């Protein structure tokens, strides 16, 4: 694993990072003491409670395996999806469903690479009256001893020997053109087909459609591209205690996941077709799941075993197959992945907001990537600047900021807290037992941290 995604030139950003760190690490400060890994220290938010995952470890899936199961499920379903034809302006971020093959030679005609004169034979030259601009047709041919004014990108007349750059040419008092220095044959002419010939493969099937690919496709003659469609996702927000506006009151709290998940899912390449708030109504949940046309349904809350935790019973009634039922990860251990009877998938995110993020990155991200046939990002590691307490049996995901060559763990990383993740660049994967200061940890990038907020929300 290699380091990447670090911010080397931080001078301008240092203030921001310090501010972010102060806000999310205040009070407690950093643990700057000697490296130590407190054995079996419970993860924040679980003090005094026996681990449910521990109790049910016979069926909880180890964290790395859970990601692999989700990716496998996505690949199998992705292979059955039909490619679509999309206009260039709708194709950003999708994956090519067919090789990009040139529809023309590029350049498609012999082209001037400079502003100056097209010249034929040795100078001095008689200059023809007309000139040729890009997009215009000039004289078909030049006779020996003739020159014509030409602009960059304009078509070269037949029998042109070279293009003489304007700064290398001088007109004498009789209007004859002299060169200094003389252009060599072929100089500053881009010959037809220099970049590719009609039919050449420019990019393979499976390439991600980046802005540069859109440019290349347009240059090569494309108006539409064959692409793997965005996975369609429907979000079902469960919980009677949720408010959609105003301040929390009387035991009611604001829905943090309704606003957070749709843009995050879009940043992961999904098309969010609907966000529905269903309360704690098992029948409504069953109806919504069975009638959804989405490739992936994401539910929030209701994954545990409480009296109104309806996700498991509804999945049982729908005869869904639980591919992952609990993961040995903190936060987020009650997360689940199910395959519905008709082959669509459902990811159940726990209701605690950081636990939901954990489920999103553990199950939804690999599944969506594979459904879109996008290659999984190369894993990478960075040393942790400070020691991180571990869970005795489970992996922990901890919000970090990337600073120089290190990942700085943030506090406020409890399952119900978003304060740490809101300031973070990535989540660090902390193995069971914890990590020492300086220990390398795998990092899961947040989609906006590397690409910028505008770049990833297409
Ligand atoms: N007896 C046990 N109880 C719980 C265990 C356990 O092991 N044994 N695990 C705890 C853990 S860990 C989690 S995580 C939660 C998961 O529970 P659910 O998925 O059933 O989620 P809810 O009970 O519906 O909600 C949990 C918590 O999150 C708040 N919430 C829910 N939705 C939202 C939202 N959209 N925005 C903001 N906050 C939300 C909800 O009010 C609860 O406070 O189970 C524990 N229990
Ligand atoms: O550990 Mo839970 O899954 O609160 O987040």
UniProtKB/TrEMBL annotation:
Which superkingdom? Bacteria
Under Gene3D superfamilies, the record lists: MoaB/Mog-like domain, MoeA, C-terminal, domain IV, Molybdopterin biosynthesis moea protein, domain 2, Molybdopterin biosynthesis moea protein, domain 3
| Region feature Disordered, mapped onto this chain | 26-65, 165-201
E.C. number: 2.10.1.1
Cross-referenced InterPro entries: MoaB/Mog-like_dom_sf (IPR036425), MoaB/Mog_dom (IPR001453), MoeA-like (IPR038987), MoeA_C_domain_IV (IPR005111), MoeA_C_domain_IV_sf (IPR036688), MoeA_linker/N (IPR005110), MoeA_linker/N_sf (IPR036135)
Locations of Basic and acidic residues compositional bias? 44-58, 165-176, 189-198
Q: Where is the MoaB/Mog domain?
A: 234-370
Which key words tag this protein in UniProt?
A: Magnesium, Metal-binding, Molybdenum, Molybdenum cofactor biosynthesis, Transferase
The protein's GO terms of the molecular function aspect are: metal ion binding; molybdopterin molybdotransferase activity
- Report the catalytic activity: adenylyl-molybdopterin + molybdate = Mo-molybdopterin + AMP + H(+)
Any GO BP annotation = Mo-molybdopterin cofactor biosynthetic process
- Could you say which protein family the record assigns here? Belongs to the MoeA family.
Write the protein's name. Answer: Molybdopterin molybdenumtransferase
Query: What is the organism field in this record?
Result: Streptomyces lasalocidi (Streptomyces lasaliensis)
| Upper classification of the organism | Bacteria, Bacillati, Actinomycetota, Actinomycetes, Kitasatosporales
